[in-house]
Amino acid sequence: MKNVILVAVFLVTAWAGQAVYAQQGFGTNTPDKSAAVEIFSTKRGLLIPRISIPDLSQAAPVTSPATSLLVYNEPTGGATTEPGFYYWDGTKWVRFVSGNNEKQTVVDEGKNVKIDSTTVDGKTTYVVGVAGHATSDKKVLVTKYVNGTDNTDGTTSEWVDYSELINDFISAENGVSYDDVTGKITLGGTLTEATTTIATTGATNTLAITGLEDVTTYEKVMVLGAGGVLQAADLSSLVQADNGLKIGADATANEGKVILGGTLNEVTAIGTDGTNTLAITGLEATNEANKIVVAADAGGVLQTVVRSISGTIAANTALATDVAGYNSYVQEVNLTTTLGGTDWTLTLPDAVAANTGQVINVKIMNEDDNHSGYLNIIDNTGTLTYGALPFQGWVLKSNGTSWLIVGRN
User: Fold this and answer.
1) Binning pLDDT at 50, 70 and 90, where does residue 152 land?
2) Residue-wise over 389-402: b if at least 16 C-beta within 10 A, else e?
3) Which of 143, 149, 159, 230 could form a disulfide with 139 if both were Cys (CB 3.0 to 4.6 A apart)?
4) What is the per-residue pLDDT for 133?
5) Mean of pLDDT values over 88-97
6) How far apart, in whole angstroms, are the C-alpha atoms of residue 164 and residue 180?
7) What is the mean pLDDT of residues 182-207?
8) How far apart, in whole angstroms, are the C-alpha atoms of residue 365 and residue 127?
């Protein structure tokens, strides 16, 4: 009973002292006044609770941890967090970092590199850029192999003039030239590839060459051959003339020109109307009985016909088929006959538009009446006239619908 009373008295006394001083000492009776708890030992340490934290953003496995709660993380069961001392900052577990396990980042300027840094709230931001050339413009920063004297990979950087870079790395060929003094790339040079293609697309992306020199003589022209290849060709080899046209002969005023002259080898029509007519000026005047040019009814085909023909009426004669050279366009037809003891018939062609204005002169050549035969002249309506007198004659003319007797001869 005495022992129980002594223990109780001791605990009450200890509690009372704690309440008064609010300090505890472990291994010492005189804890430092600045510490709520002081542990003193020369051979042992303080063993912090060991837990496994699977997710540093979650409190688990601790329930409602107080801010600044200290634990040692020993990941188990597949947890991938780093082991070490952690404290709860109110929202997550924060690891204590020391010089032994802290990764240090050193940012140092290399050759031709500049680094600008800004620090805000303990956070430093580094901006790495290229250091400009200090003395001149128009420089280009390039890498240069120097056998590892500056970098472990054997290269360094160097500012060079851009023209020097172009001279070293740019070459021009296949129709393009480069001037290493002016630094300009221009058209001009020998084509070194089999085929050089410049593609154009539709009416928008086209190719134009302006300012070409005017020529006064016909020399060679550029043409596209098979596959779009440009070639030089004589103009005469490109132009063909046919069907009434021809190419002017070399060394003449018409050299290289397409002019009229030649044989028609296909049906050819030139359309005219009351306004758009066809005229040939400067025709040669003539007094000779040459042929005349007429247009046939069918398609206006031009034809040549003689101005007049002559023939003889013997027995029954059809003018359209029995008199040589007759056609509807002959202006004048002269026919003679010498009658005997038999009546003869001259059958005229139908009066149509084609023979409008055609004149037929018919003459009986008998000098006396010692004959009994008559000459009957027949048109498309029947007997137009008849006669048998010596030297009797008629002048007949077509008005396009009938034959008329317009005179005697």
Assistant:
1) low
2) eeebbbebbbeeee
3) 159
4) 61
5) 92
6) 9
7) 81
8) 131
The β-bridge partners of 159 are 141
Tokens of 319: 């003018």
Can you tell me the distance from the alpha carbon of 379 to that of 385, in angstroms, rounded to the nearest whole number?
Answer: 9
Phi-psi region of 54 (alpha: psi -120 to 50; beta: other; left: phi over 0): alpha
Listed in sequence order, the residues at least 6 apart from 66 whose beta carbon sits closer than 8 Å to its beta carbon are: 88
* Contact (Cβ atoms closer than 8 angstroms) between residue 24 and residue 18: yes
109 in the Ramachandran plot: left (φ > 0), alpha (ψ -120 to 50) or beta? beta
Q: Is residue 376 within 8 Å of 353, Cβ to Cβ?
A: no
| Residue of 320, 345, 316 lying closest to 333 (CA atoms) | 320
| Burial class for 160, CB neighbours closer than 10 Å (0-12, 13-18, 19+) | middle
What is the percent of the chain with per-residue pLDDT over 70, rounded to a whole number? Answer: 80
At residue 176's C-alpha, the angle toward residues 173 and 178, to 5°, is 90
Compute the chain's Rg from CA coordinates. Answer: 63
Structure token digits, residue 232: 């030089």
Q: Compute the distance between CA of residue 29 and CA of residue 27 in angstroms, rounded to an integer.
A: 7
Domain coordinates of the chain in residue numbers? 22-99, 110-188, 308-408
Q: Say if residues 336 and 312 touch (Cβ distance below 8 Å).
A: yes
Greater confidence, 256 or 151? 256
CA separation, residue 366 to residues 334, 370, 372 (Å) = 16, 8, 11
Structure-block tokens of residue 83: 């082991």
- pLDDT tens digits, one per residue of 99-136: 666 666 777 766 667 788 888 866 788 887 776 666 66
